[in-house]
Structure prediction request, 81 residues.
Amino acid sequence: GDVGAQHIAEALKVNATVTRLDISCNDIGDEGLLHLASALAANATLTNLNVLKNDLTEAGACALVAVANSKPNQIKSLFGI
Prediction:
């Protein structure tokens, strides 16, 4: 859920090795996705993120897409949006 996504987001802020993350089917809503979007903005290694089958709405999706668009040379795939 959102709390777990917040913990993952904190780890992503300092991550220097993970390039792919599949967090599909975890009941993550917009609150969790907004934390993840913030973390992705600070992250320099993640290239692929799967958020399929979560509880995102347009707000969460737009936040992730905005970060991906700001890092076109890094983030290659957002799956589930």
